[in-house]
Amino acid sequence: MVTVRVSNPLRSLTGGVGELRVPAATLAELFEAVDSAHPGFSERVRDEQGRLRNYVNAFVGDVESRHLAGMETPLSPGSVVTVVAAVAGG
Predict the structure, then answer these.
(1) What are the domain boundaries of the chain?
(2) Of 25, 75, 84, 87, whose CB count within 10 A is highest?
(3) CATH of the domain spanning 2-85
């Protein structure tokens, strides 16, 4: 199981839940698993090609997934993935 931490701006997509545990071997599988439990999550954070939207970052441990293998980043049991949406305003 992989732990998924969801930032406050995205918690409305997970019914207010900030931390989930899902089975996943890659980042893509993680988003599919979260979407299975919370329909619409993946559509909100991923584009039509399945990549993270520009305003969303996914950190595997302390490393942003775009600096790894993107959606094909391998995950191990016990991995922690933090999904963060950018917040703008003034």
Answers:
(1) 2-85
(2) 75
(3) 3.10.20.30
